[in-house]
Amino acid sequence: MLVPLSWLKEYVDIKxxxxxxxxxxxEVGLNTEKVTKQDDDVIFDLEITPNRPDLLSIIGIxxxxxxxxxxxxxxxxxxxGFAGQAKIKKVLPLTIRTDSKINPRFTGIIINGIExxxxxxxxxxxxxxxxxxxxxxxxxxxxxxxxxxxNPIHAFDYKKIKGSLMKVHRAKGGxxxxxVDGLIYHLxxxxxxxxxxxxxxxxxxxxGGLDSGTYNETETIFIRVPVEIPVLIRKTATSLSLRxxxxxxxxxxxxxxxxxxxxxxxxxxxxxxxxxxIASELFDIRKEDFLxxxxxxxxxxxxxxxxxxxxxxxxxxxxxxxxLNPLKKTKNIIETTVxxxxxxxxxxxxLIEEVARLYGYNKFPKxxxxxxxxxxxxxxxKNYEMEKxxxxxxxxxxxxxxxxxxxxxxxxxxxxxxVPDKTLRVDNPxxxxxxxxxxxLIINLKKALLQNKPYFEQINLxxxxxxxxGSNIGSAQxxxxxxxxxxxxxxxxxxxIIEKIFEDFGVNEGGAKYIQIFDEGIYFELNFSDILSKIxxxxxxxxxxxxxxxxxxxxxxVSEKITVGDTIEEIKKQSPLITQVSLLDVFENSKTFxxxxxxxxxxxxxxxxxKIREKILEALKKKFKIRLKE
Amino acid sequence: MEEELIQIKNSAVSLVLDAKDYRxxxxxxxxxxxxxxxxxxxxxxxxxxxxxxRPEIGRLANEVKKSIEDTISTQQTRTKKETSDELKEKxxxxxxxxxxxxxxxxxxxxxxxxxxxxxxxxxxxxADGPEIETDRYNFGILxxxxxxxxxxxxxxxxxxxxxxxxxxxxxxxxxxxxxxxxRVMEKSKPxxxxxxxxxxxxYEQIDxxxxxxxxxxxxxxxxxxxxxxxxxGTLDYFVRKFFGEFTKxxxxxxxxxxxxxSLEGYISCMACKRNGCSFxxxxxxxxxxxGGMIHPNVLKEVNIDPSKYQGFAFGTGLSRLVTLKYQMxxxxxxTNPDLRILNQF
Lengths: 630, 345
Hints:
The structure holds two protein chains of two kinds. By secondary structure, chain A is an alpha+beta fold. Helices cover 31% and strands 23% of the residues of chain A. In chain A, strands 4-7-10-11-12 form a five-stranded mixed β-sheet. In chain A, strands 5, 6, 13, 14 and 15 form a five-stranded antiparallel β-sheet that branches. The longest helix of chain A is centred in the last third of the chain and has 19 residues, at 606-624. Chain A is elongated, with a radius of gyration of 39 Å. The N and C termini of chain A lie far apart (92 Å). Chain B is α+β, with helices and mostly antiparallel strands. Chain B has two domains: 2-90; 107-342, 2-Layer Sandwich (BirA Bifunctional Protein, domain 2), CATH 3.30.930.10. Chain B contains eleven helices and nine strands. The mean pLDDT of chain B is 91. At the A-B interface, α2, α6, α7, α9 and α11 of A face α5, β1, α7, β4 and β5 of B.
């Protein structure tokens, strides 16, 4: 929100420099994004948090500044009676039918004999400074008072209200509505609207209608200052994607106690600037009187939450500066009176924040929690050491880590032969490029490999990240996957890396099934969540053997169809004294195996070994039809 | 025989001490100790001696052998050193070394490790939860009523619920890691200290400082006497550990539906040391953290009695911490798999 210093100064004396004021405003919660000098004025650009409807007005901000400066605010004095007019000369008819369930307060009045024209310069300038476009004196006044007081106001052309009837009701859904800016909307079911005897003339809390607006020929206006229900306004605004200054205020919860004052201020300005006379009673149809509320603050609790004892006198002073009229009830309890414009103050903690923020967060000491350190393992506990371990293995093997988007496109899926229809999908993607949740990591890794190709010869990348599986959201599951890609490592190197990972994690599994070869290189992908569930890191020392092993190499000729894995398996089966079998060399169909024989308790004799060797050869001959190499 | 052995020893030792380099020593070793070396041949002669003389001569032969071996090995160590220096002189030592091809860990990973380590030292445990979330954990428990404008600060990506009987809008991609307040707390009892790094999603167009996917971490502590000043102290400790001990932090009041009182933390700009630069928009400070005392409504939702227990929660964009730490000017660099970027970390 844009706030000119000159306008603020009308309501509050400011001693702080604009820069210091901006810093203090930020500290108390009005984040000052920018302070800009403009001619002889200074414009503050403030970020208003969604809990503070009152700060969407200049007076609201002036109140905060008054609290900071420890001074009083000067609200424009309203004239005696109603806009200074004692008697109403001519009363025009108007029937209002409303429902407090959808419209808690409906305040309004008719003014007759106005002249619609351009606004005076001072008014136009003020509006321009806060980023509003001047339209005509009536529209400008309603806007001006909304920004001044924080209550949205709408002026209807009285003569366009057919049947002199205003009926507040909810839309059936699908009705056409043309807004003041000439856009046609199809209303959602339940939108709160006002109809006259013929059609909808107002989309409550959001936008007025085109036909019933104020134009040059307008002579009589009905000014409405309502209280709307935040949820209802928000639902309609969201479904139409239509937001206005008014709707932002109503969504946050307008000052329900402020409608009459805002109307009075508006009427005074209309009579002064556009002329005319009041031509109706003051309509104020309301659910309740909307008075200030009492809210207690316990000093003990204040100190217990904040961690410091702010002196009672200081607490009272801070609350007083915020117009909360603190009253000491007992030794421990302070009763405050919360004005209707502060509907964000609902519970004691809200008052604690008020005290703390005006006291100044940066005056607090800084402490570290006392008490015991929890030792019980948390639900959803994650052991980061496991992730560190696996990432260290991969980086040691030359792989660099990448981190890519979880959201991918339909094209990505199709290129990888994945059915989009069976992939989890976002209903409102930011773009078609990021519409589906990735069911695999390889899609992005393949792209990353290609992206790096022009600059690097040897590319080794990995990602450890989530994949999202399930054909619809009802069966959705998330897993951590680990995927690596390489354009310079061969199958056995990749297999070795996976085997190394499994070995370090104590998982008893082979690596080959996770590996795929493709045009550009080779990759592997495995379910890391699954590995974590099988992990076994317990280690037990085995004494080193006291007796030397007997080692020999066995060269055989065997059909290429017989796998090394099966051969090793078969060799191992022949005796428990064979502690290790590995492949030493392969040439065409000749393979050499390295065999270690060992007994843990004594020396092996050559005879024992030669017996086992015979057994091995016999078994291999029988099963795989091997020949011993000459 | 005795004399012969002593003579061999003397001549060997003097030759060894005179030897000029390693190679010459190797030759002497063969000459005396090799298979047909002088000493070896002499030792073979011992068997020809009378039985009673053999042990004495044998012992002497061994002594001679050991003394020659020791002298050669001492000399070899010495000449080896000299040779190494000589060799190095012949090399161009300014040629860059051949580095082992070790990969690089993503800067995000390195920052997560840092963050986790800092909070581990304060007694926090890491928790990890789902990214596909329900409205309840993302908003409901955290005191974001339906149709509340506070939800505008967390533009949401909704998941397609067709082909299921789940109401549209109920299943979303989590917009913050604060979801793990409800998930963890409803299953445990105070005292609690948790830290949750993770990926979050927002309906936001991509530019240098925004994205639809980024990383956050959430932390919280709940116990009987956890106070607001504890929050200030914890955040101060964190930023000084993470960014360096001279980092300054200042706080401002803010609004989050799930904390009350709430704050934002700004840290002194590490790019310009508070002199003002484009990185901190010439303010000397950068917005880095959010937090507050956990709202009583949140505690009630997870069946923790807010009159007995209280706690604080805080969080920040991890992606932002990475860009701040390494002074990267664009969030998109973190999801770009370009090795020219990654090799810098």
